[in-house]
Amino acid sequence: MSRGNLLEAEGNFLKAADAVPESPQVWVSLASIAFAAEEFERSIDFYDRTLALMPDYREAILGKAISLTYLGRNTEAMTLLRQLVNLGEWLIGESHFWLAWNQHDLGDNASAAENIQQAKSRLGNGEVFSLAELIDLDLGDDEGARTNFFEALKFNAADADALFHLGLIFARRQAWDKSGEYYEKAASVYEAQARALKDKADEIKASPLPEARKTKLLQRKTLQTEKTLLTAATSSYDAAASYFNAGASAKAVVCALKAAAHPALKEKAGALVQKIKSEP
Fold first, then answer.
1. Residue 36: CA atoms inside 13 Å, Cβ hemisphere, count?
2. Which of left, alpha, beta for 262 (phi over 0: left; psi -120 to 50: alpha)?
3. How far is CA 235 from CA 41, 108, 273, in A?
4. Among 140, 150, 95, 160, residue whose Cα is nearest residue 122
5. pLDDT digits (tens, 9 = 90+) for 139-148
6. Comparing 1-55 with 74-156, is the CATH topology the same?
7. Within 13 A of 138's CA, how many CA atoms are on the CB side?
8. CA-CA distance, 276 to 280, in Å (whole number)?
9. Which of 31, 180, 235, 237 could form a disulfide with 186 if both were Cys (CB 3.0 to 4.6 A apart)?
10. pLDDT in tens, 123-168
């Protein structure tokens, strides 16, 4: 596992599970491998096997809750996370973070704000500030969001969502140069993410996984890649519009042409290019 050879590790853990099915560590390790592969239904099955042997295994409770979160099963996830908070001692910050995530996903931003503050006091990492910024944005607190965006970037300068939303905030303030700059940076990061997803898909294609399992994983990666490419193109278009408003026509054309390379933005971005070029 430490070398990243997850399939080999999985095979050995499955053999161990046959030999010592009473070991919760074997099952939680299998759950971790399934989670890393984004096979969340499968990870839940292994987490359940772990919890059947050790009901208060905190890492298994948290892992199952996160898997449920990614599957959109928010209510089930929050029930487990509250159980984890009640157990106390450790993983409390993580529990509050994922409670905030689920509440934000459901649109309960007031409750999410309370939990993200608890997470901030215990964790204080980039992901916490990134979620805090989204909650503030939805609550209409642009200044709080801006502060959290910049905090998130201190931990990870390539936080694409933070960069994108900073572009949005500066656009609202009509600070067009800044808006274009952050939208353009976001587009670049999203493009890199899409390339990484394609590389991962190539790894899956070359793997010895059973075909049915491989197909399911490839479908997920394809959807993720398409979504990320669309977000990158949207970021480029927004950068072009901001640069155009700032009077930076050359930068605006470059970004608009990048956006136009995506079929969903081709017509809209093409019209913007024509508008920019027609300006005196």
1. 15
2. beta
3. 32, 27, 15
4. 95
5. 999 888 889 8
6. yes
7. 17
8. 9
9. 235
10. 978 999 999 989 999 999 988 888 988 999 999 999 999 999 999 9
Secondary structure of the chain in HEC code, one letter for each residue: CCCCCHHHHHHHHHHHHHHCCCCHHHHHHHHHHHHHCCCHHHHHHHHHHHHHHCCCCHHHHHHHHHHHHHCCCHHHHHHHHHHHHHHCCCCHHHHHHHHHHHHHHCCCHHHHHHHHHHHHHHCCCHHHHHHHHHHHHHCCCHHHHHHHHHHHHHHCCCCHHHHHHHHHHHHHCCCHHHHHHHHHHHHHHHHHHHHHHHHHHHHHHHCCCCHHHHHHHHHHHHHHHHHHHHHHHHHHHHHHHHHHHHCCHHHHHHHHHHHHCCCCCHHHHHHHHHHHHHCC
| The token pair that represents 235 in the structure block | 């970021």
pLDDT at 33: 93
- One-letter amino acid at 208 equals P
Using the structure block, give the residue that is written with the tokens 């939208």. 183
Report yes or no: 38 and 217 within 8 Å, Cβ to Cβ.
yes
Domain boundaries, the chain: 1-55, 74-156, 159-280
Tens digits of residue pLDDT in 55-93 = 999 999 999 999 999 999 999 999 999 999 999 889 999
CATH topology of domain 74-156: 1.25.40
Q: What kind of architecture, by CATH, is found in domain 1-55?
A: Alpha Horseshoe (1.25)
